[in-house]
Structures are given as structure tokens and as C-alpha cells.
Amino acid sequence: MSVATEEVVLEVFGFVACARVLGLLSSVSREWRRIVDTNASLWELACIDCWRSKYCGADRSSRSALRRSVEERRSVFIDASLFARQRWWFRFTAQAGDAWTEHDPFWQGHEARELKFHLEDDHKGVVKWCHQDEDHSASSSSCWRLEDTDEGTILRVKNDSFHSPFPGCKLSRHPTNWGFIFHSVWVVYTNFPMHKTTSDRATSDRVLKRTLKDWQWTEVDAYNRQGWQGHDQDDDDDDDDDD
To answer: How many other β-carbons are positioned within 10 Å of the β-carbon of residue 181?
Structure first.
């Protein structure tokens, strides 16, 4: 194959470059396999096609990165470094109750709140809201940690205004954009924007609720019991003060 002919073939391949098509083209002949295997530009185009509208946070650099991202698209594990590099959006679920959803922008027809999970130099995880408002003022702070279990990574958040860490959020992946979804009985975090009028079925309360684990419901019950016990203790302290 002449240089000019190879340039034409390469140009044509560039218009249809995706992982599946490049694999088919490489099986046509030895010459086409050589062109596919030795031209990184084709795989860069395949990466662009594969990662289009994806929120997987992949290292977009090579053919091996493309293979790795496809293999990991269903992984329910994430390390703290990658977790902290993502942009995240947050909303309550309907299960959290009207007291929380009535002040949640998502439930009022707006885009969900955006936040960042910072990993400080001392390896302490700190939660910071990207847009402060009266419900998320600087007067209270939250910290986070990740916990790896046999069934995947669990996110745990503790706000200093509440009596104990919130029930854990388990990690899942969006079936089409490969994005990360952390959710519990009460809350949802995603590394892609959520908007009630445009969010798809995969992030709906109905679908996410079906994937909740027994331990998540158990943690909600334990959290509520601890809250009532703390409330009863406060009442006892008030009675002592009256005496």
C-alpha cells in the first residue's frame, strides 16, 4: 500500500473510529490491522466517541485507557483520590420527608446542589458546598470517608450539627453515562448534574430504592433511635436544670 493510499484509508477510518468498528476493520486484512494498531490518532478518536457524555473520570490518554475504562464501567469501587477529583451533585430522596425536600432545589424544579469532597493534606475529608445558601452556611461543617466492603465502596458523611454519621451511601454506576451514583435511603450524590425535569429513570427514587440493601435500612433505624435517645437525654437535662 502506497503512502498516499494509506493516508486516504487513515482519513476514512477517522470518520468511523470507535472501538467496535476499529476491531472489525482490523480483521479485514493484515494491512488494515497494521494501520489500526499503529495509529494512535484513531484510538484517540475512539476514546472521544466512547467517552462522549460519560462521567467515568477516566484517564483519557491511550488505547489501554479506553480498554480499562470499558472494563471498569460497572465497577462499584472508587478510591479517595479519584473521588475528590470529581464534581458532585446532591439531592434528598422523597423518603427523607417534606421537611428536607421542600428546601431542596432539585425538588423545586432546579438543578441539584453542587458540592466538592476535598481531601486535605492531612488526609481528612471535608465537604464544601459550591454555592452557599441559608441551608448550607459556613456555621456547620461536614467530613467524609470512604469504606471499602465486599459489595463496593460506601460513602459516610458526618455533619457536626447532628448526633452521629448519616446512614451510609452505597456506590452504583449509571448504565449509560457510566457516572458514579452514591445513594442511601435519604440522599443521592452523583458526579453528573441532576435536574428533576430532565433526570432519567436510572436516578429516580423508584429505581434507586429497589437497589437499597438491608444494612442501609438497618442503619436508618439505628440513626433514628439514636436521635430519639439523644432527644430524651436533652429533656432529662432540662428537667435537672429546672430542679
So the answer is: 22
Q: Would you state the pLDDT for residue 195?
A: 94
Gap between the Cα atoms of 241 and 71, Å rounded:
62
Of the candidates 24, 28, 74, 64, the residue with the CA atom closest to the CA atom of residue 44: 64
How far apart CA 101 and CA 13 sit, in angstroms, is: 50
pTM of this structure: 0.71
pLDDT band at 94 (very low <50, low <70, confident <90, very high): very high
Q: Set out the domains of the chain in order of their start, with CATH numbers.
A: 3-71 (no CATH), 80-238 (2.40.128)
- Between CA 69 and CA 63 the distance in angstroms is 10
Characterize 192-227 residue by residue with b for buried, 16 or more Cβ atoms within 10 angstroms of its Cβ, and e for exposed.
bebebeebeebbeeeebeeebeeebeebbeebeeee
